[in-house]
Amino acid sequence: MKRLSLPLLLCSMAISSASAETWSLDSCISYALEHNLRIKSAEIERIQGEYSVTEAKDAFLPTLNASASQNWDFGRGLTSSNTYANRNTSMFSWGAQMSLPVFQGLRNIRQLRYSKSSLTALEMQAEAARDEVRLSVITDYLQVLYNKELLEVSREQLRLSQVQLERQKALLEGGKVPEVDVIQARSKVAQSEVQVVNSENEYQTSLINLAKDLELDDISGFEVTPIDENSPAIASADEVYANALANYPALRASRQNIKAADDAISVARSGYIPRLNFNAGLGSSYYTVSGQQGESFSAQMKDNFSKQLGFSLSVPIFDAFSTRNNVRQAKVRKLSAQISLAQQESELHKSIRLAYHQAVGAEKKFEAGKIAVEAAKASLDAMTEKYTYGKANATEWEQTQSDYITALAQQVQAKYELILRNRVLQFYNRK
User: Fold this and answer.
1) What are the pLDDT digits (tens) for 94-118?
2) Do 293 and 241 belong together in one domain?
3) What is the C-alpha separation between 206 and 197, in angstroms, rounded?
4) 6 lies in a domain?
5) Given the DSSP bridges, would you call strands 223-224 and 275-289 parallel, antiparallel or unpaired?
């Protein structure tokens, strides 16, 4: 019995310390969307994007700085009579400066546009993360149900093996079978017990996988409810792919990344354009010389008070190819984003077509499996009757039993393969 190959994730539960709770698929999804760490990480990145937009807006605001300094000078210096003398000087100064960006080579405008584009991409990526978790929850939920039914099949096999062992013992007492038949029956029971243990391990593993994406550590008492097995008609692969191209969040995020990359190229190109700033400032100072009587502090502050207004123009002539390299790097990042989108579209197309063909195949196998199980059960009942009356041997009965168990397992596999693939198609087929 093999494990269903499912590319996705998880289910859940919210386990209290006092009691266990049975969870539906919808409640699993809701819980995962609230607690999954991938979603939280994507949300943090989105918040960082909001801060980047705020930072880009702040670049349009003026900057204002205040300064103050106190200096002392000890040593010889020239006097008013042009001679040297030992003297100490002291100077205190203060000032305030304001700078207002008038024209920054369109950099601020382009940076704001790039920040907004990046924020939109991050918002779409956050939605894509939620989408991935939804699909993962659906997949692992079905995996749990699948493994649970396989466990029941293994238990049915064990039950039949135990019944056969008791039957062989009774026949041995009646002298109708040799002892070796009883030994073989005991061996079959042991093998069935091992299979039950293996199936139980598979079931527990699927529960652990579910708990992982829900950030839950305890799976004791965890149970999930069965789902509605009446799947709708299988949608065509072309229809599903067309809708996915238009609406799948991961693709929309990738397209937005390309737009953001275009805006990043514009930001890099702004390094070729001159920049103009308006500057204003004011300040004053106080100066003293040891041994000399100078003006008072207030008088010097008044006399030395100054105001400045002006413009500063910066014209890029040669920046050691910095702007050129920035533009090239931005173009490479855009190319990378385009390739990533193409890869995603290709993988999505492959996944949808594969899911479609698997769903169609699973539907046929499931319908055939119903007939196979009914036939195998009827054959087992007939073989059991023949064996009871000595018209069949143990080997024939065990082969019939094995065929019945195999038919059960194949039907379970086909059932959940059909449910999963159909739900995957429905997931991508949203409008």
Assistant:
1) 899 999 888 877 888 999 999 999 9
2) no
3) 14
4) no
5) unpaired
